[in-house]
Each structure stands twice: as structure tokens, then as C-alpha cells.
Amino acid sequence: MSEVRITFCGGPGTPTGSNFLLQVDNIKILIDCGLYQGERMAEAENYKNFSYNPKDIDYLFVTHGHLDHVGRIPKLVRDGFAGKIYSTPMTRDIAELIMFDSMGVLQKEALRDGLNNLYEEKDVLESMRLWSTKNYHQEILLEKNSKNKNLEIKIRFLDSGHILGSAMIEFTIQNKKILFTGDLGNSPSPLLKDTEIIKNIDYLIMESVYGDRNHFDQNHRLDILKHTIKNSIAKKGVLMIPTFSIERTQEMLLAFNNMVENHEIPVIPVYLDSPLGINITKVYKKYEKDFNENVEKIIKKGDDIFAFAGLQMTRTPEESKKINNSSNPKIIIAGSGMSNGGRIVHHEKRYLSDIKNTLLLIGYQAAGSLGRKLQDGLKKVFIHGQEIAVRAEIVQISGFSAHKDSDHLIDFVSSTITTLKKVFVVLGEPKSQNFLAQKLIDIYNLDVKVPEKEESVYLEV
Length: 461
Fold this sequence. Notes:
This protein has helices at 67-70, 73-78, 89-113, 121-129, 218-234, 248-261, 275-286, 293-300, 317-322, 344-351, 370-375, 406-414, 430-444; strands at 4-10, 19-24, 27-31, 59-61, 84-87, 131-133, 140-141, 153-159, 167-173, 176-180, 203-206, 238-242, 270-272, 311-313, 330-334, 358-361, 380-383, 386-389, 393-396, 422-425, 448-449, 456-459. By secondary structure, it is an alpha/beta fold. A hairpin with an 8-residue loop joins strand 1 (4-10) and strand 2 (19-24). The mean pLDDT is 94.
């Protein structure tokens, strides 16, 4: 028998900062090492020492390339981690871009607050040197360095359908299966294949970002998007769309491409004001074979799904500033998705006070973020130390979220309820975690736990 223990180092009580420690005898495996995100990227939590010694960690498995799942990997390396990192190839490409991009923002905030840098370029480069990739379903057999000579640990990446390359991580230990979901996709996705159906799982560690609420119908979300665009054009205003550079930006480009080419909206200037978003879109093009069948058919007909009349990609700060001089109506798609950094904040500072303008929120807004304050209806916000009156119209569409909603999270579990011994609900705000946990108990009569941060649990394998 092997001793198997999970420590919830990051994930309980918050949707960000994903970080789990799986110990099998004397083998120490991390799942994700993400940044905590809130009002600012440089949250104090990110600077704290890890609750384990990074030098003792043998492996790190990464579910996907979002910053709240990879953002502290360079710090982990800086603090002594020298083991192996595994992810899908797409996740590796995305993670490299996003870690370099966030490094600049973090360094600016650290300089302003008199803090040391969380990590530097050499730490990102060393992280990439340690990184290996495996495709979905390609088995990874860990080297046997356990006291138990009969121990065998097999790992597979399963498609979670959340963003390009996103994976659930399945560990098979002594014929028992432990699955970490990472973030689960809002299937069917406009771009990606559906979340894989899981079976024969014994222990499930699952996300709950939208555990207590449901999204708009996917057709309804496009109707609202079209209405919001047309309304903004009629007002001769500026439509600002804060987007995450990964997945949300590409879904927006696909939606605009379809609407423009089908003459559902007029051709007006649409600015993709996000160097990271532009670079991530290149990664998406590189892995077009991983899109769903509908998108593959469109691509085979010769359509560039991420390009359309009126689209302008602004890479440099100078190009970004020139957007202010262009006439209205216009649309600005820029990061970050929660308005806690990036170029969207400059546009919000300039345009939120005008009643003709519109801010369209299309994703999750973490507690404490500027996006959350705007979502909650605050009429005055502070941006770069300046008080800004909020007179612009605030519109929200939850259907563009890349996360499963409450009903679909419950459905996701249904395929493996006959084998489940225990479910751990993590990666959500407390009310989302507790609501989903209670639903799983009520509907399936499962053994469900909402763990505390740093709590350790032993599993029977």
C-alpha cells in the first residue's frame, strides 16, 4: 500500500492561485502553480513563501496556460524547483507568452510599491528549459523513486475544452484514479472540442467558478452582442470590451468575423489593442487542427476566422494611443479581462465618463478587481489614482465565459458517479463552492468536501 495525500495549497475559497500538492509515498507532485489575481496582479499573497520547499518537488503538471494556473512557476523555479514540468504542447506555448507578458506588469507594480521582483527573465527561461510536453491521452509513466518498489503512477492529459491545450490531469495510482479538472470548458465552444466525458474516477478535484449560477444560452449571447454593437454605433460611441488574451479574444474575433461577413453589423473600426492577444492568436492559428469540426470546415473553405474588414491590430504603445484620435463609432478589444491591468484600463479611464460609451463585460470578474466594481454598478472608481465618474452603459454577457456553469458542472460529474469515492470542490468563491457541493450531495448523494486552504487529506488507494 502507498500513502497518498493531497494538500490544497491554492484553490480553496478563490478561483485564482491554483496550486495542489499530491504526495505519493516520498514522491511530490504539484498540479499548477498559479498567480493570485484581484484588484492588482501583484497581490501580497503572490509574494509569500510556498507552504512546501520547492527544492523537494519532483514534478509539476500544468492544466492550462492561464496566469492563475502558471503565473508563479518562475517564482517556484527561482526558489529552487528543478524537477520536470509537463503540459500539452499548446499549453507550453501559451504559458511562455503569458509569463513573459505578466513579468513586465508585475515588475512595474513591484517598482511602484517598493517590492522585489516576483521573478525575472532568467527564471522564465529556466522554467521553459525544464518543460516537456505530451499530447492528450499520451501516457506518462513516472520514474520509480518510491520506497514502494511495486508503485506505478500513470498520468494522462484529457481535453477539458476550456482554452486551447487545456487539460484535466488523470493520475492512476495502484488502479485508483484521481482527476484534477483544472478549469472546465463551457461546451459547446465556438472554437474548441467539447470537454471529454470522464469515467471510472475514484477521487475528483473539481473547479466551481460558476458553481452557483448559469450562463445565457449561447444563441442569446450573440443576440446581446449584436444588439450592444448596434446600439453603440447608433449612439456614435466607443464600445470597450475587456478580454482575456487567451480564448476570449479569439472567440470575439470569430464572432465579429461571422457578423461582418454575414452583413449582420456594419464595417467600423475594431481595434485589437493587445500585443499578447495578437501573439496568442498566432498560437491558435498554429494549432488549427485542434479546433472543433465546424471551425475546421470554415478554415478549409479558405476563411481566416480571426480576420475581417475593419479589424486593426495595434501592437505598439504609439499605435494604441492613436486610437484616441480615431473618430467614433469604434470598438476596442483589449486586455485584461478583469480590468486589473493592461491597455483596457487606459481606455476605461478616458471613456467611462461619457454617457455615449459602453463597457461590455464578457467574463468572470474576481472580487476586488476594477471589472468587478464596474459589474457591481459603482458610479465612481479610481484608475491610476484618479477618480473617474462612471456614466457609460455597463453591459454584461455571461455566456461568453470559458467556464462551465452550475448545471453543466453537475452534468459533468454524472458520468462517473458510480465509482466516485469523494469529490473535492475548489477554485471558486466560497458561495460558489458551497452551492455546488450541496447540489452534488442532494442530486447524487456523493461524499463531497469543500477543503480549507493548506488542508491535507489522505486518500485510500
